[in-house]
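Subject: for your reference before the review

Hello V.,

The reviewers asked for a structural picture of the protein, and I figured it would be easier to keep everything in one thread rather than splitting it across files. Below is the amino acid sequence we used in the manuscript, unchanged from the supplementary table.
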Amino acid sequence: MQFSSLILKLFLLIIGVVGAVSGTYAAFPVMPEIQAYHSWGTRNSNYSSIAAGISLFLSTNYASADRTLHILKITVPADVADVNMRVGGWFMDSEGNGVELGIHDQWHKSGETRGASLSLRHIRWDKTHIGASPLGKTTANMIHLGWSSGKTVMSFLFGIDFVSINTPNDSFAEAQFMAGARTAF
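And here is what came back from the structure prediction:
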C-alpha cells in the first residue's frame, strides 16, 4: 500500500468518525465512505475487498430518502489470513485495484438507517494463475445491486453482482453474492 493511499484512508476515517459523532454532516454535501466486504461467486470467486472514497449529496427524493453519488477506489488483496483469494477459478498473484461509481438511496428512521444502491464496478488484477500456468491480467466488470441496514455510523450490507470476467484466454459471466459493512453518515 502506498503511503499517500494510507494517509487518505486515515483522513477519511477520522473525518467520518468526527462528523458522525458531532452531527456535522446534516448539511454537508460531501461525505467520506468506506466499505469492507467479501464476495462469493457461482464460478468459484472468493475474495475480500475494501473501498474508500466520497459520497456526494444529490437530493432528498419523494420518499424522503437521501440520494448520493458515491465514487470509491476498490482494493482487493491477493490473500487474506494466508488464504489465497480467487476470481472465477483463477488465483490472484497481485493485488486487485478498481473503481466504483454508483447511486445510493438512504432512509433514516428512529435511529436506524436503511439503504439501496445501484453501481458499476471495475477491478483489475495484473497477475493471476490457474494451477501452475500464469495467465496475466484479469479484469472484472460488475453491475452491483446492494442493500444496507444498521444504526448510527455503521451499516451491514449485502448484495448481488452480475459480473463479466475477462482473462487473456477466456471470458465468462458469473453471479456474485457479497456481505460486509459500510459507513452510514
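For the response letter, the relevant points are probably these. The mean pLDDT is 81. The chain has one helix and 14 strands.

Happy to draft the paragraph if you're swamped.

O.
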